[in-house]
Amino acid sequence: MLRLIEKASGPIADVRIVSAGLNSAIAAHVRTTDHTLFVKGLPLDHPWVWTQEREADVNRYVRGIAPELHWHMEDDGWSLLAFEYVAGRHADFTTGSTDLPPVMAAMTRLAEVPAPGIELKSMPHRLRKYVDDPADLSWFAGNSLLHTEWNPHNVLMSSRGALFVDWGWASLGAAWMDPALWLLWLIAHGHTPGQAESEAAAHPAWELAPPAGLDVLATVQRRLWDSIAHQSTDDWARPMQRAAQTWAMHRTGKL
User: Fold this and answer.
1) 249/243 Cα distance (integer angstroms)
2) Which of 32, 134, 166, 243 is the most exposed place for a label (fewest CB within 10 A)?
3) Alpha-carbon separation of residue 200 from 103, 159, 224, 246 (angstroms)
4) End-to-end Cα distance, the chain
5) Domain range holding 32?
6) CA-based angle 235:20:88, to the nearest 5?
7) Which of 19, 52, 84 is the last residue of a domain?
8) What is the pLDDT of residues 33-78, one digit of tens each?
9) Three-state SS across the chain?
10) Mean pLDDT per 10-residue section of the chain, whose length is 255 residues
11) What is the value of pTM for the model shown?
C-alpha cells in the first residue's frame, strides 16, 4: 500500500496510523515531501468498497464543507482515497456545546448544494425495510444531497469551521432529513428530544418537515437502531438505540 501512495504523491517521509475499523481497513496521516495527507482505504473485495467511489464522486460538490480529495486510486487489491490533512478535533454534541452553531452553519451550506449528477442511493430506498406502509416512504423523497451519517467522528472542528468527512453514505432525499438524523445524535449526547428538535429547527429546511413525516421517521429510526444494536458491538450502538427509542416515544407516544 505504501508503494501505491508513493506512486501517487511521491516519497513518504512519515506515516502515522490513525485507526482501522468498519469504515476503513486502514486510515493514516501520511507526510510526503510536498503534502500531509489523510489516506483511507479498503480492499477491493470488501463489501463496502463502493463507499470509496461514492466519497470520491461527492467530494467535488462539497468543497468548503469537506476536506479536499487529492486522489483516488484502485490498484494492487486496494481502493485508496487521499484527502488534504486538516488539523482539528471531533465535534462535541453535548448540551451547551459551542460546536453546535458552526455544525449547523455547515449543514445549512450543504443544503444549498445542487443535487449532484452522480449515482446516489435515495432515502426511500435505504429505509424501505423499516416502514409498515410503503406509501410512507414518500415523506423521505427529495433531490437534496444529504450526508446522513452524523456520528461526531464524522464532523471535524477546524480553523475553517465544521468540516464533514466520511461521505460514503451520502444520499438523496428531503432536505429536512439531515437535521432530523442529526438530532438523534444530540439526544444520544445528553439533549432531551425537545432540546434536540430546537437545535434542528435552526436548519432552514426544518420548517418544511411535515409532522407526520417526522413521526414516521422517528419510528423508522427506532427500528433501524434496534436492528443495528442487535448486530453491532460498537460502543455507540446502544446509546443510539436508546436515543432513537426516546425520540420515537416523544413523537408517537409508543415504541
Assistant:
1) 10
2) 134
3) 11, 23, 20, 16
4) 47
5) 2-84
6) 80
7) 84
8) 888 999 999 999 999 899 999 999 999 999 999 999 999 999 989 9
9) CHHHHHHHHCCEEEEEEEECCCCCCEEEEEEECCCEEEEEEEECCCCCCHHHHHHHHHHCCCCCCCCCEEEEEEECCEEEEEEECCCCEECCCCCCCCCHHHHHHHHHHHHCCCCCCCCCEEHHHHCHHHCCCHHHHHHHCCCEEECCCCCHHHEEEECCEEEECCCCCCEEECCCHHHHHHHHHHHHCCCCHHHHHHHHCCCCCHHHCCHHHHHHHHHHHHHHHHHHHHHCCCCCHHHHHHHHHHHHHHHHCCC
10) 75 77 74 88 91 95 96 92 94 98 98 94 98 98 98 96 96 98 98 98 97 98 97 92 98 88
11) 0.93
Q: Which residues contact 148 (CB under 8 A, 6 or more apart)?
A: 123, 169, 170, 171, 173, 177, 178, 181
Contact 122, 173 (CB under 8 A): yes
Shared domain for 41 and 66, answered yes or no, is yes
